[in-house]
Each structure stands twice: as C-alpha cells, then as structure tokens.
Amino acid sequence: MPVYTYPPDRDPPFTSILIPTVDNTCLKYLITKFDKTTFNTLLTGEAGSGKTQNIFTYLGSKNTPDHDDYAINNINFSSATTMGILQQNVESFVEKR
C-alpha cells in the first residue's frame, strides 16, 4: 500500500488530502482499470468510502498543463432533484453554440 507523505513545502487544502487505505487503494486500482475499457462504470458504496474523492483525484491526475482532456464537475442529487433541474445543471456547464 502506498505511503502518504505530507508535503513539507506547502499546506494542501484539507479536502484534497487522501490518506491511502486498503479500500481506497483498491478503488483507485479499479478506476484505473475501468478507464482503459469502453464500458460505462457506476461506483457504489457507503458514504465516506472515498468514491468522489478518488474520481476527482484520478481525473485531476490525467490533466496536465499541455494535455487538458477532462472538465470536472460535480452534480449532487437528492430526492428533490427533477429532470428539469438536472438538465438545467448540465446545460449550465456545456458550451452553447
């Protein structure tokens, strides 16, 4: 399992710190493998298991200064989310031509 080293030269934002555990290390491995396939993937798991943070970390690591392939956006769902709200949310981030 990878060892976490706190960066000595800066204080990272608290929300960006991901301490490696057995669970999120396995999840990172699976995300890496699924990214190489052409299948859609749905991550499920208990609250606080690191699904969102692992996805954001993985997609962020794929973006480099000269190769910006992914635009990351988070949409929260609840029992009050309707199709109209979802469509409005998605369209607010899509470039209109």
| Main sheet attributes: strand count, strand direction, barrel closure | none
Q: Which geometry do the CA atoms define?
A: globular
* Tally of contiguous helical segments: 3
Radius of gyration: 16 Å
What number is the mean pLDDT?
Answer: 82
H/E element sequence: HHH
Structural class: mainly alpha
Give the low-confidence spans.
none
How far is the first residue's CA from the last residue's CA? 47 Å
Total number of beta strands: 0
Task: Please tell me about this protein's structure.
The model has no long low-confidence stretch (mean pLDDT 82). The protein has 97 residues and is mainly α. Helix 1 crosses helix 2. The protein contains three helices and no strands.
Summarize the structure.
The chain is an all-alpha fold.
Write the layout of secondary structure elements.
Elements: H1 22-35, H2 51-62, H3 83-91
Helix pairs in contact: 1-2
Task: Please give a handful of descriptors for the protein shown.
3 helices
